[in-house]
Amino acid sequence: MARTRLLPLCTLLLGACASAPAAMNGPVAAPPRTMAWLIDSVADAPPLDHTTWGIEVRDQQTGQILYQRNGNRHYIPASNTKLIVTTVAMGTLGPEFRYRTPIIAGQATGDGAVRGVMIVGKGDPTMSARFWGRPLAVAYAIADSIYNAGIRGIDGPLIIDASRFTDAMINGTWEVGDLPGGSAPPVAAFAIDESIFRVVLVPGAQPGDPVTLTYPGWPEGTGGQPISTARVRTDTAGARGLIQSDFLGRRDTIFLSGTVPLNRADSASWSMTDPPLYAGRAIAAALEAKGVRVKDGVIVTRDSVSAAAARRELGELREIATLTSPPLSEIVQAILRPSQNWIAETLLKTLGAELGSSGSWRGGLAVERDYLMQKVGLDSLDFNLRDASGMAPQNLLSPRAITRTLDHARTQPWGALYRTALAAPNVNGTLDNRLREYTGRLWGKTGTISNVATLSGYLVTDSGREVTFSIMTNGTGLGSSTVRRNADDIVRIIATHVGK
């Protein structure tokens, strides 16, 4: 009986004896403030301790992994996905690749008229104000080319051949709420202004009156995207305007509802429902403004069979002009610096059309997969992609897949072009106002969708060593600005501690 009661006492005494040396030697020394300790401190501090972090830092000279946290795990990458399509395009098509869009006239019918004109869409994503200076500029340029070829009338249709890409213009993994705005416009083989159009809603004379629409840049008396404003009314002066849109399948009319204040017009931009048809109407309007009649309106061919039939109807064909895009290196810059979704998706379909089975997401993703595995050396489990822009929440990449892809890109003959195409501090783009103390030392790609924030790229550290890094966060539940600040702090830790 007495023995059994002594056991807890002995245990207490042993515990006291075990702790005695620490007490006699003073407080336990704090762990060294290494790069790993500091990064972990940022990632594990509330409220970001609820976030799933994936980080990898790789020395460019030795290939050594300097820091790793869940480096081989999958994360939704958001716009870091654009690093894949741009790397694969530069590696397969080459930095000097250019889109060429033929304009073909049909058989002459007399008095400067032809049986029809066909514009053969090749997927050129540069027919916008970003490259041409103003919206609809390319429509007027095409009209000028047709007029300068001596054509004064089109006795048939203006044909837009959009068969280069499949007719599925919306990626099935995109969220419905992203479709009306500029984040996820339809992707077609021929489009102008990045498949986005702008309208101005002009209020009526009195509250309750209907509004009228104008399309900036369109010739007087013509309209662009079909829109119903039957449910839009003029509100009182000084009221706050509110416009909502309903696309109803995206193939024809957009139905608007809401109010426009009496004292001022309102403007808005939406995705086109049918980019090839919209572009054709814009070109036809520009032709009519020059006095070139288009007898049978605009026809869009969406598959190779209908395109071939349309060519036969034109009779004897002659190419009267070709539009040539800027080189791919400039297109890649237009994707990476501002994080442009639509151009990225168009480039992915181009990969499928040029090198794969079809001008489709499936065709382009298969080309990406082959390149990543055969050229970059990734394992098939390192990635699972559904689009090019990162709008799809089903996209998955690991930090290791991103750093290896970036390392592959930098070692290619086009590596310097690729690096300068990335966003950077104090350069117009998504990193313009971030980490400005690293101007000329940081080139990266940001990424943000709901509960996701990422930053990957190249960094020259304070010691002069060059590293490739990827910082990925998922399930943040926080505002993106909070996560960005902490990701930037991690970049600063890397810069100050690598090579220290």
Please specify the SSE layout and strand pairing.
Layout (H helix, E strand, L loop, with lengths): L1 H24 L9 H10 L7 E8 L5 E5 L12 H11 L7 E6 L2 E3 L2 E2 L2 E4 L8 H4 L4 H12 L4 E2 L3 E4 L34 E7 L9 E3 L12 E9 L6 E5 L7 E8 L4 E6 L3 H15 L3 E2 L3 E4 L2 H11 L3 E7 L3 H9 L4 H15 L5 H16 L6 E2 L11 E2 L1 H12 L4 H7 L20 E8 L2 E9 L5 E9 L5 H18 L3
Parallel strand pairs: 5-7, 6-8, 7-15, 8-16, 11-13
Antiparallel strand pairs: 1-2, 1-22, 3-6, 3-17, 4-5, 9-10, 9-14, 12-13, 18-19, 20-21, 21-22
Helix pairs in contact: 2-13, 3-8, 3-9, 3-10, 3-11, 5-6, 8-12, 9-10
A few lines on this structure:
With 500 residues, the protein is an alpha+beta fold. Helices cover 33% and strands 23% of the residues.
